Amino acid sequence: MNRFEYLRPQSVAEAVAAAAVPGSAFLAAGTNLLDLMKIGVARPQRLIDLKDLPDLDIIEQLPDGAVRIGAQLRNAELAHDPDFRQRFPIVAEALLSGASAQLRNVATVGGNLIQRTRCAYFQDPASACNRRAPGSGCDARGGDTRQHAVLGWSEDCIATHPSDFCVPLAALGAMVEIEGPAGRREVALTDFHLLPGNTPERETALGQGELVTALRLPPAAAGFARHARYVKLRERTSFAFAVVSAAAALRIVDGRIQEARLALGGVAARPWRAEEAEASLRGATPGAEAFHRAAALALEGARPSGDNEFKIELARRIALRALTLAAAGTPDRLPALPASPFAPLPGGLHV
Amino acid sequence: MSLSVTLTVNRVQHRVLLDDPRVTLLDLLRERLQLTGTKKGCDRGQCGACTILLNGRRVNACLALALSHDGAEILTIEGLADGAALHPVQAAFIAHDAFQCGFCTPGQIMSAIGLISEGQAGSDAERVREGMSGNLCRCGAYRGITEAVVAATRSMTKEKAA
């Protein structure tokens, strides 16, 4: 790990001013940043610790029916908040399917958004990686691509964004609130993570010195609580990143789908919202026919970025499973293993 | 820049001068306070051997910058027993043969205490296994670990009710 200067601002304004200096990085829990510093992938010259910033760790009910979630709130606190998990069970399920209890106890909402890819070649400074070292090439091409993209990738980069949390957020139309040198602004979560194109080193919409201060779920995000599931396929039972995942949320009125939301994880450099698939479900009767059609639409345009063609069919089936489970109804209590596609029977055991 | 942190570790306050901002809580415990019960396994938040309670919550000490936690209260494996009387989770690990080599055991025990106080798993073995998934055991003593955590949950809940 490189040496660094350590700063501890007392306000958002101070933090943003401090981050204007190139080489600065914000430190929240550090579960991703410190890890990357240990392996030499991140080498910030200044760490700006956000610990003392006031009022960034609260959940706020806004007058228009939106919910604002402070960027410094811990994953576990959000997932276990009784009111939040009742209104947004799909977000709680995604959060609790990610990482471990120890990590969820410290990792923050904002940190989850800006976490870096888990591409093994990005994480290995000896490998060529256009994302880590622009222009150096991409050793993932032709390498082990189980964790890599099948949608939205480019010749320069095939990495995926690893977040579970961001997948239902994309489906629910979350907004990201940002403060920076030029003041406040906000972007849709689905525009926050950038597709690689020929500038894969630009990972998010954040500019120099800009800080994510909150997430906002708009009023329209409520109303899916009864039919919303996150499903995630991983290579071991728990504590693993998604190979593919899907968040499906339905509003069913009088036996018809009034509104549908669908997003995929593990398939692209951003959580992948499938709006055409959503549109195909509007007005449909929930069932196999409509769900097969929607899942196929969600993967339209997908192509392998290496030896990972299987992920296209896998993602299609995970989308189908998520829609089917969502239609069956959100369980009163999350299953023992949140988001698992296995153990289909209530009370069934995984291990 | 002179750097220092004040931490309450196992109910004793320590002021530690740091010559370097890079020190993690794990390295501080092991190398500055000689509390080597907390283990360094992967040093990357993947194995759970370094689990401690930080302000009452289980965390990976390897991914926590010491400077960031000035004023914190920490509980490690060394702070559990009351003289010769073991903590109920320690006793349950022995009664249920929940280890072989013992390297992951301090982290497993601290994680189990965190899990029990979170109250999300109860004595449901499936939920206990999921709740303990941040702690790897290379000897594969998972069956005993699950039994020990379930038994300790029952005995501690009964104790609280009594």
TrEMBL record, chain A:
- SMART domains tied to this protein: CO_deh_flav_C
Q: Which residue numbers delimit the FAD-binding PCMH-type domain?
A: 1-222
Coiled-coil intervals:
none
Can you name this protein? FAD binding domain-containing protein
Task: Tell me what organism the protein belongs to.
Answer: Falsiroseomonas tokyonensis
UniProtKB/TrEMBL annotation, chain B:
Please give the PROSITE patterns that the UniProt record associates with this protein. 2FE2S_FER_1, 2FE2S_FER_2
Superkingdom of this entry's organism? Bacteria
Sorted keywords for this record are: Oxidoreductase
User: Which InterPro entries does the record match to this protein?
Assistant: 2Fe-2S-bd, 2Fe-2S_ferredoxin-type, 2Fe2S_fd_BS, Aldehyde_Oxdr_Iron-Sulfur
Task: Quote the Pfam families the UniProt record gives.
Answer: Fer2, Fer2_2
Residues in 2Fe-2S ferredoxin-type domain copies: 3-80
Q: Which PANTHER family match?
A: OXIDOREDUCTASE WITH IRON-SULFUR SUBUNIT, OXIDOREDUCTASE, IRON-SULPHUR BINDING SUBUNIT-RELATED-RELATED
Designated name of the protein: (2Fe-2S)-binding protein
